[in-house]
Amino acid sequence: MDFSESSTTTRGWRRSKRKWTMVEDDELVRALYEISLDPMWKVEGDFKSGYCSLLETHLTEKLPNCGLSAVQILSRVGHFRTKFSTLEQML
């Protein structure tokens, strides 16, 4: 796949922030949906520990040049939980 957008890292006052592209967001939501369907990873309204490493490997397979770490993925999932109630319903 050839991506016209690229994720960028901007330098702020204290630390650098990574800007996610729409393609990365879409793939993350797809991966979260797939994990939510698997009963092995579900536990009382949340995911079991270790799901971020699974998401990291999934995103690396789908988007080889994204360079996302589990910490960045966890932060983005937290962002989605606060901003979008549909993700909360999926859990």
Task: Walk me through this protein's architecture.
The strands form two sheets. A two-stranded antiparallel sheet has the order 1-2. The chain has a two-stranded antiparallel ribbon with strand order 3-4. The chain is globular, with a radius of gyration of 14 Å. Helix 1 packs across helix 2 (51-62) and helix 2 crosses helix 3. The protein has helices at 22-37, 51-62, 70-83, 85-90; strands at 8-11, 16-19, 42-43, 46-47. It has a domain at 56-91. The protein contains four helices and four strands, in the order ββαββααα. Helix content is 53%, strand content 13%. A hairpin with a 4-residue loop joins strand 1 (8-11) and strand 2 (16-19).
Protein topology:
Layout: E1 8-11, E2 16-19, H1 22-37, E3 42-43, E4 46-47, H2 51-62, H3 70-83, H4 85-90
Antiparallel strand pairs: 1-2, 3-4
Query: How much strand?
Result: 5-15%
User: What is the rounded Rg?
Assistant: 14 Å
Low-confidence stretches: none
Structural class: alpha+beta
Secondary-structure element sequence? EEHEEHHH
How is the biggest beta sheet arranged?
2 strands, antiparallel
How widely separated are the two ends? Answer: 30 Å
Mean pLDDT across the residues is: 81
The spatial strand order of the largest sheet comes to: 1-2
Shape: globular
Seen as an oligomer or otherwise, the chain set is single chain
Number of strands: 4
Number of helices: 4
Features:
alpha+beta, 91 residues, 53% helix, two-stranded antiparallel sheet
